[in-house]
Request: fold
Amino acid sequence: MPHSELIFGGVLVTCLLGVAVLFGWTQRGAFGRAEQLPHDERRIARRQIYRRLIGCAFLAVVAILLAAQYMLWEWRVKAIVPPLNDQDRMVARLWLATVIGLLLALLVVLILAAIEAFVARSQALKQYRKRSDDRRALIERQAARLLEGRNE
Reply:
C-alpha cells in the first residue's frame, strides 16, 4: 500500500476520532447546563444530549472500522488471487464484515443526524408557535386596554 494512502487514512481516522471525542466531551458538559433548565426543557435537552453521545460513539466506531480497513485487511485482500484457499476466504469474509460494519455504523450516524435535525425543527416550530400565540395574546390585551381607555 502506498505511503500516501496510509498517511491519508491515518489523518482521516485521527480527525474522526478527534471530532467524536471533542463533541462527546462538550455534550458531557451539557449535562450540567441541562440540569438548570425547567423540567420539560430538561427532558428535551437530555434526549438531545443522549442522541448526540450515541452519534459520537458511532462516529468513533466508524473511525475504528476505517482504521481496521486501512491497517489490517486491505493489503491482504489486494494480494489474494484465485484460487482462494480457506485462509484467504476467511480474510476476505473478515474484510467484507468490516466493510459492512463500517457502512452500518455510518448509516446509524446519518440516521441519528436526520433525527436530530427533525427534532430540532419540530422544537423550533413549537417555540415559534408558542411565541406567536403569546405575542397575539399580548396585542389583544393591549388593544382591549386601549379600547377601554377610549370608551371612558
Observations:
- The mean pLDDT is 84.
- The helical segments are 3-34, 39-79, 86-151.
